[in-house]
């Protein structure tokens, strides 16, 4: 980085490392209508979960009202939220999904 200081050119070291990007958790919300099998499919197809992990997360959402599908950079989180909402809408399920900054 070049800085002009009273006719002198001063070169400043640029830090080699960048701060880690802010991370976002994608959260699935419970509802009374979306079939359990559909939620498990979403978790496998969009979040690349095994069948066992997908069932665990789905049941956690079913019993506790919400559950974390994964933690991603902002763009990846937003793309996955969109994918869930598109799939749910296409099958006419009220499934809701959102992203929030990791505390
Ligand atoms: N509660 C739904 C049912 O009983 C299942 C469900 C689980 C819905 C998770 C949404 O994010 C969800 N069919």
Automatic annotation (TrEMBL):
Domain (Adaptor protein ClpS core): residue spans on this chain: 20-97
Pfam families reported for this sequence: ClpS (PF02617)
Keyword check for Membrane: no
Keyword Protease included in the entry's annotation: yes
Gene Ontology biological process terms, A to Z: protein catabolic process; proteolysis
Molecular-function GO term, any one: peptidase activity
Keywords, in A-Z order: Hydrolase, Protease
Family matches, as PANTHER family: ATP-DEPENDENT CLP PROTEASE ADAPTER PROTEIN CLPS, ATP-DEPENDENT CLP PROTEASE ADAPTER PROTEIN CLPS1, CHLOROPLASTIC
Purpose of the protein: Involved in the modulation of the specificity of the ClpAP-mediated ATP-dependent protein degradation.
Subunit-structure text: Binds to the N-terminal domain of the chaperone ClpA.
Family: Belongs to the ClpS family.
Protein name: ATP-dependent Clp protease adapter protein ClpS
Source organism per UniProt: Castellaniella ginsengisoli
């Amino acid at each position: 980085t070049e800085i002009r200081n009273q006719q002198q050119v001063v070169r400043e070291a640029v830090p080699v490392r960048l701060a880690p990007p802010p991370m976002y958790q994608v959260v699935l919300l419970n509802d009374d209508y979306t079939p359990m099998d559909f939620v498990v499919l979403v978790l496998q197809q969009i979040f690349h979960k095994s069948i066992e992990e997908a069932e665990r997360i789905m049941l956690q959402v079913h019993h506790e009202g919400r559950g974390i599908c994964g933690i991603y950079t902002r763009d990846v989180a937003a793309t996955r939220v969109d994918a869930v909402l598109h799939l749910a809408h296409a099958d006419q399920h009220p499934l809701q999904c959102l992203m929030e900054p990791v505390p």
